[in-house]
Amino acid sequence: MGIVVVEICDGNMITVIDLESILEGEFPEVAVLMSDCLSFCGMCAVRPYAIVNNKRIYGKTPEEALEKIRQAIRDELAQYDI
């Protein structure tokens, strides 16, 4: 398990991208967890998002959300000097 946890809802628009393979491939310190529901009702239908160490990260498109998620991961890892 990684020191950065990225949670993704199965019903989210961001699932058009294989985030698990991308993020875990780029960042060995990351664990991507898929859930049936993250209890942010309605958000999945409105915009692509993920939760990075308990912080919601979202974008207008899946690609924009991915870039913001990558930055959030870098910010988290910077705290550990990795």
In short:
With 82 residues, this protein is an alpha+beta fold.
Q: How would you characterize this protein structure?
A:
With 82 residues, the chain is an alpha+beta fold. The chain has one domain. Helix content is 35%, strand content 24%. It is built from three helices and four strands; from the N terminus they run βαβαββα. The chain has a four-stranded mixed β-sheet, with helices on one face. The mean pLDDT is 87.
Summary tags:
35% helix; 82 residues; alpha+beta; 4-stranded mixed beta sheet; single chain; globular; 3 helices
Approximately what portion of the residues adopt beta-strand conformation? 15-25%
What would you call the structural class? alpha+beta
**How far apart are the first and last residues' alpha carbons, in Å?**
16 Å
Poorly predicted residue ranges: none
The biggest beta sheet reads: 4 strands, mixed
- Strand arrangement, major sheet: 2-1-3-4
What share of residues is helical? Answer: 25-40%
Q: Mean pLDDT, rounded to whole units?
A: 87
List how many beta strands DSSP finds. Answer: 4
What overall form do the CA principal axes indicate?
Answer: globular
